[in-house]
């Protein structure tokens, strides 16, 4: 389920405040993503594996049926790996989130906004 614009903006503010307060933690949490190049290499290797699976499938049809089953399993696994890598390549962020420039203490502004939103929801009876 995609985030609404308001939720996306709130998430970006959270990321920016984390980056401003503790850059080492933000870098450690953001370093779990593998680069686009690694995903491309993985997708390419999965394509080669898929072709190997096709060869096994065809050879197995002429000789032993077990090779055909093994070829199909290899093809299926490589297709899943390639699609997953391709999906990760297309969903990587294009630009980094920058901390807000207006306030020397961005976390105070953020917390103030969150508290005011919370109070408005309490007053409206949505909680």
TrEMBL record:
Q: What is this protein called?
A: Hypothetical membrane protein
Q: Which Pfam families match?
A: DUF3040
Listed transmembrane segments: 43-59, 65-86
Q: Where is this region: Disordered?
A: 90-127
Tell me which species this is from: Propionibacterium freudenreichii subsp. shermanii (strain ATCC 9614 / DSM 4902 / CIP 103027 / NCIMB 8099 / CIRM-BIA1)
**Keywords from the UniProt entry:** Membrane, Transmembrane, Transmembrane helix
Top-down, what is the taxonomic lineage of the species of origin?
Bacteria, Bacillati, Actinomycetota, Actinomycetes, Propionibacteriales
Q: Where is the composition biased (Basic and acidic residues)?
A: 112-127
Q: Which InterPro entries match?
A: DUF3040
């Amino acid at each position: 389920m995609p985030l609404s614009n308001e939720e996306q903006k709130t998430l970006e503010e959270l990321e920016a405040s984390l980056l401003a307060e503790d850059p080492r933690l933000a870098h450690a949490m953001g370093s779990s993503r593998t680069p686009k190049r690694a995903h491309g290499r993985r997708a390419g290797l999965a394509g080669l594996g898929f072709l190997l699976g096709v060869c096994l499938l065809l050879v197995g049809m002429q000789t032993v049926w077990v090779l055909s089953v093994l070829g199909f399993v290899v093809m299926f696994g490589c297709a899943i790996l390639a699609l997953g890598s391709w999906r990760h390549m297309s969903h990587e962020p294009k630009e980094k989130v920058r901390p807000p420039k207006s306030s020397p203490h961005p976390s105070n502004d953020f917390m103030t906004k969150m508290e005011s939103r919370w109070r408005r929801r309490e007053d409206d009876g949505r909680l």
